[in-house]
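no rush on this but wanted to send it before i forget. theres a chain ive been looking at and ive put its sequence and its fold in token form underneath. please have a look and point out which stretches look like helix strand or loop to you. thanks a lot i owe you, the record is right below:
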Amino acid sequence: MNIKVDKKLIQERCGSVSLKSGEAFRRADKVKIEEWTNDRCIAVVSTSEDFHVVVTADGTGDFHTSCTCPKLASVKIECQHIAAVLLTIYEKHLSQHDLSEEVFRLFQADKKPTSGSQLHFEKREVVDVAFALKPVVKDKENFLGIELSLNQRVVQDPRKLLHAIKNGKQSDLFDPKVHCFKKEADAVIQHLIDMLDDEKTFFEEIELLPQELILPPSSFRKVASLLQQVEVKMHLNKQAYDGFKLIKEPLFLRFFFTEENANGVVLKVDGLNDLFVFRAYNTVFKDGCFISLDTDDCRRLAELKRMLDASKTNSIPIALNQVQMFVEKVVPGLRKLGKVELDETVAKRFAKTPLVAKLYLDRVKNRLLASIEFQYEQVMINPLDPKENRMNTMVIRDYDKEQIILDLMEDSEFGSTEEGYFLHNEELEYHFLYHVLPKLQRFVQVYATTAIRNRIFRESAKPQIRIRVKKERTNWLEFKFEMDGIPESQIRELLSALEEKRKYYRLNNGSLLSLETREFEEIQRFLQANPVQDEDLEHGLNVPIIKGFKMLDSVKDDAVFSLEESFRQFLEEIRNPTSENIPVPKQVDKILRDYQIHGYKWMKTLAHYGFGGILADDMGLGKTLQSITFILSELSDIRQKKCPALIVTPSSLTYNWLSELKKFAPEIKAIIMDGTRKDREQAFSRLKEVDVVITSYPLLRRDINLYATNLFHTVFFDEAQAFKNPVTQTFRAVKRVKSDYKFALTGTPVENSLEELWSIFHVVFPELFMGLKEYSNLTRKTIARRIRPFMLRRVKEDVLAELPEKIESLESVELLPEQKKLYAAYLAKLRHDTLKHLNKDTLRKNKIRILAGLTRLRQICCHPSLFVNGYKGSSAKFEMLLQLIEESQRSGRRVLIFSQFTKMLELIGRELAYQGLPYFYLDGQTPSEERVERCERFNSGERDFFLISLKAGGTGLNLTGADTVILYDLWWNPAVEEQAADRAHRMGQTQTVQVIKLVARGTIEEKMNELQDKKRHLIEEIIDPGEKVSKALTEEDIREILSI
């Protein structure tokens, strides 16, 4: 097929998750090519269903893909089935073409130029760099010129040098292969290189000298910070200053007003001649320092210096009739540049007095009246009177402050006369009293009459909506609006005004109540999100609890909502169900730990209110046991109604559930729905005779019509992420199951997106959320708040204090079809051969042969490729291990993986390497000193996986850095397994250790596990630690292991 595809492209189009799954499908020979032409490939990917994939070339080198799987619309990347087909195309191309093109593409990346920066281990000569700065005048503006010196030699053309350094090329004074710069100097050099384009653009029409760079304004701040770290000299007026300092501090200029004669005053300026102004950089240079200024201040200072330099004097004469305006307008700006002083005579004539502004407010005949007065000691000014009131003493008025006050009054749309302001409009009056007046109070003294004070609502209480659980109906909530100072008879009108988005409400006493407060805005948002009837506004709104939770989603300010004690108790009962009214079944009372009792009572509480939930405890915390406890507590009700509980689980866990039920609640009558279609239909006819039905997701899909016609007491969906995709057949099937109570069990309720959480809740508690479209518009905060009472998750750290020191669990998996065929063939042959020798005379002679056959069966359980040449399929245990590895990565666990077969460890190691997961490895060939070193490195936190040969690493190692142990295959002697687990579970371990045994169901491994429990002492004698054949292997033992 004429398309170019590689793994990088496949990952870009499909994502890392789909790429990984696609690789697993390809390795397991799940991809079958049905059509292969130059422009098209049609393939079938066989998993639980057959999915058809089409890849079509478009003639431009690109290609288009399609797949029949139900991919989520929100997912923009390609699916795992397309990834599997693209990988197959890639592999076919590799097998058909020379690898030279791939290798060439791998190494064709552009070679980076040799860095001029000094490295940690440097063999090159370090070149001393010095920077010299001096003022340069361009277009009547002052700039900084920069000269460079290398090893005390001035660079004649610094631009040429910088271009050479940028390209890694040799120049007259610098060869990047021989020379280097110190880190600080190289930082300046690199920024000067970046600056070259800015310099060229900024000074485009100005001729530049070759021996100096000119610093453009855009680069000043960055270069200034870097120059402070290197050797710099500033040359100004034939004087040199060492170092570069950029500071922000007063200029220490002195502006002195003195009386010249009766006709005016003189302004003298001291210190201006000591400054050199760089207006382009908003800085001045003084006494070896650059001082940073605001843009306007620097502009004024530059103009002032230019004017005084041109006049060749440091004084400015001011005519008497200009003095007041000069003092009012110019002096405030001068104070930003330095200290302003007035001699005694000038100070007396132009004394500045503070402005005292007064605002008088009254209300007469439904009109708001206002007047303003500006007071400067004895001088009173009415700003509305065009004839300003003056005295003989000249007053320096604060025009800026006066203008602020007048602007605020004008913005309020008052009418005005020379006597004052007036307003005859209630909305404008409200706006002035609540919005403008608070701003005016920062500048004026307010004098208001009683009529004005009564117009403003003064109650300190804030509006609230009280929420309580109704006494008559404990699964309903009541929302009721309350506010102190507001009669209940006016509540409906007030809230109606709020719904109409009015800005205020006039109470019966004439007060104007602002509806623009934070609290009222929150109530308005609540009412908009939850439309209610008029009668509900006055007497309270009653809704079911679940609808009440949804209504609370619109809440952004919790302070507005007052939760009464009844509602708080309801929430506390769900979050911390410690009620003594929920007894723990006596069968498990002494087994359950406190957190498991909490989980059981949480489920009972949800069931009491008719809610569903997700028990999302971390792996190994006993979700199964908590569920069994719930079933025990409901057992009498189950039997009375003749309505069994249903457990839906992955195929690999059905027998685990049955085993756990027999272990903790043997009185429960449980069946597994498996076998032929006829067998299952017959089992359905006896549903009323059992307490618990266990089935798998695949069988539930096949038999959904049978399940949909029956009502179950409770449904537990184990590993509920199985229906995280809402467009799959599994999701549609579980939605049709009917029961009084539903719970999901999963350690990973969200793996890739929040849509998965919606899918699970839509099955176990559909009332909690609306459709997927509405759900996708909710914020994460809203979703988290709504699900909080209905999802219980504990991780190991939460309950560490009461967990046992070591948690042991067994993962039982079903062999893959290709494995089953091989296993059945070898088992039949071994049974045939073994029957010949099962007597006392021949057993001893042929024990080695029998054990070798048993080992072959165990290897098939691990991975048939351990001894079957050319085997291309996968292994059930291997796939389970990959799942555990992925979970451990997400949970931050550190894992020891044991196997007696070193070839199996090599297979695992290759997969970890493929996933980019570093690991340590240890087997019988590892030297003693390396064993210790690798253990110490692992315990120090380096790498998260350690692959260990069971016999080589089962003793003598301290690996307390791990918190998870996976026993990939079983050993005849259970003590060896215990010793392996104790590599992590020993003195110095601060974390709970999880030990996971992988067992292939229905195989020799399952028999071995049963024998370990049934004949522990006998099994220890089958093979001793020295690998010697034991005399204790009897005919009965071999018959039981081989089921003959």
The chain has 39 helices and 45 strands.
